[in-house]
Amino acid sequence: MNGATVPTASPQLTTPPSVVAPNPSSLAYVRLYLSQPVTASFIAGGAAGAVSRTVVSPLERLKILFQVQSSGMNEYKGSVWKGLTRIWQEEGFKGMMRGNGTNCIRIIPYSAVQFGSYNFYKRFMEPSPDADLSPIRRLICGGFAGITSVTFTYPLDIVRTRLSVQSASFAKLDNVTLEKLPGMWGTMKHMHKYEGGFPALYRGIVPTLAGVAPYVGLNFMVYESIRKYFTPEGEKNPSIVRRLAAGALSGAVAQTCTYPFDVLRRRFQINTMSGMGYKYKSIWDALTTIVAKEGTKGLYKGLVPNLLKVAPSMASSWLSYELTRDFLLSLKD
Question: Which parts of the chain are Solcar repeats (predicted)?
Answer without folding.
Answer: 36-124, 133-229, 238-327
